[in-house]
Amino acid sequence: MKALYKYAPGARASRLEEHPAPQLTPRDNVFIRVSVCAVSAADLQIYQGKFSSTPPFIMGHEFVGEVESVFPGVTAVAPGDRVTVRPYLYACGQCQSCRDGFPQYCEKKQFLGVDRDGALAEYITLPEEYLHKIPASIPDNIACLAAPMAAVAGELSPGLLRPGDTVLILGSGLTALLALVAAKAAGAQKVIIAGVTQDRPVRFPAATALGADLVVDTLTQDLPAVILEETQGLGAHLAIETTGTEAGVNNAIDCLRVGGRMACLAQSQRESIAAKWDTAMEKFLTLRFFHTSAYTEIDRALKILEEYPRELKPLVTHPGRLEDWERVFETLSRGGGIAGVLRIRPL
Ligand SMILES: [Zn+2]
User: What is the distance in A from the centroid of ligand 1 to the CA of 142?
Assistant: First the structure.
């Protein structure tokens, strides 16, 4: 089978290769033909050599496929089912993290497409308990965004976002735009997207199409002034930070009201960043950090995707075939796009 293989550490060091198809085992008990696989932020970082990993492995984890066969005894899915996956596999269920309800932090867990072979390939085998069936009405190109949508939707659920909130989202990439949709679905009254000038041609129109009430260019506009004007001088209730930059974090702190909440969704990829600590204290802000998502919300994410399939179409700015992978990875690496999705099984 064809597979996108990360064959060595460092930048690039990826190529399309022929590999034997995987075999069903008692653990990886479902054999799936992959239809499409999205290029995630992690995939891009692996390609750029910026993501800690130990090649060789087949890349990719945000996929949609069709079950072709199952190991005896499998009941959760059957041949013909369309499925996607929660990509943190094999949590032990015994360690303290697992018992505390954080299986995604289990030391034994394996991240699909990093710690074991992934889904940028024609076939994959996976454990039935990590698979989710996809409603027929969601097209492949949208359904493969279920895992990132689950991450965002899950983070907004436990009281962090309250109906009627004014929400400021820092950044305008895929995470930010999925957060916009999830925030609207969770009852946010007003959602404001803050990006940079480079985002104007593609990301800003997508944000508007997805229902952003206002889109701000932080390089040419005074973001805190705009937010104060939009909130009767009070500031936003919730800031969702998706850039991992000093500017993003401090803009969030500056734009929140007293008692505001902040969700930090992006790594800085630096040792430390300088934050407006005292301002955050004086405003009595609540900060929550999200690194490895629980992905427990995938069925809710699929419901959101089912509700907005047509609206979400502009998110896939770089569709292609598996054979086009290099062009898609290179274009996305240059920035300004939103999501790349590679078709593996021909239509
Ligand atoms: Zn564990």
Answer: 31
Say how far apart CA 87 and CA 111 lie, in whole Å.
6
What's the gap in Å between 100 CA and the centre of ligand 1? Answer: 9
pLDDT number for residue 295: 62
Strands, E assignment, 175-294? 190-195, 214-217, 236-241, 256-264, 286-289
> What average pLDDT does the segment 43-55 reach?
93
Specify the DSSP class assigned to residue 141: H
Q: How far, in Å, from the CA of 88 to the mean position of ligand 1? A: 11
- Per-residue confidence (pLDDT) for residue 158, from 0 to 100: 64
- Alpha carbon of 25 to ligand 1 centroid (Å): 21
Q: Are 8 and 110 in contact (CB under 8 A)?
A: no
Mean pLDDT score, 59-74: 98
In the chain, what are the domains?
Answer: 2-145+312-343 (3.90.180.10), 150-289 (3.40.50.720)
Judged against a pLDDT cut of 90, whether residue 17 lies above it is answered with yes
